[in-house]
Design a protein that fits this description.
Largest sheet: 5 strands, mixed
CATH topology: Immunoglobulin-like
Number of helices: 1
CATH superfamily: Immunoglobulins
CATH class: Mainly Beta
Number of domains: 1
Strand content: 25-35%
CATH architecture: Sandwich
Shape: globular
Order of helices and strands: HEEEEEEEEE
Helix content: 10-25%
């Protein structure tokens, strides 16, 4: 009986190991190779937390994106978190929108419901508008094979 149990356990361990190995292989060989892209975003010398970065590949519909952490650091993703971007020239857009309270106001006392048929006011971009559109921001990056670091120091 003990031999049969050990054999069953061994079989399940072998099946589990095989499944793990299959799951760890590159399941998307048709995807282009990406390279790490990291950096920081500052505005007037201060780290920008929760900023959204949009890297738009020039002459293509390809893009990569990221969100900064509390220290203004980011790591780009194209297909999965932190995988970086495909090599090429990019136009970059950066935005940071204010957080709206779920009630539409920062406090319950100030809450005014949106009238029926009306849309709530759009969230306000807390960075200069010139950085929002990748095609017009003036921010660029050239991603190359290997590691890439792009720091963006925003001003008014």
């Amino acid at each position: 009986m003990a031999k049969a149990t050990r054999a069953r356990v061994g079989t399940w361990l072998a099946v589990g190991t095989a499944a793990l190995l299959i799951g760890c292989t590159d399941s998307h060989p048709d995807r282009p190779k990406t390279y790490p892209v990291i950096g920081t975003v500052t505005y007037k010398g201060e780290a920008v937390a929760d900023a959204n970065l949009n890297f738009q590949l020039v002459g293509s519909t390809g893009y990569a994106s990221a969100k900064t952490d509390a220290s203004g650091n980011y790591a780009l993703m194209t297909f999965q978190a932190g995988d970086g971007a495909v090599p090429g020239d990019y136009n970059v857009g950066i935005t940071k929108y204010e957080r709206a309270a779920t009630t539409g106001s920062s406090s319950e006392e100030d809450y005014v419901p949106v009238e029926r048929g009306q849309s709530p006011a759009p969230a306000k971009n807390l960075l200069p508008a010139k950085y929002a559109n990748p095609a017009k921001s003036g921010l660029t990056a050239k991603v190359i094979e290997g590691s890439n670091t792009f720091d963006f120091q925003l001003t008014d």
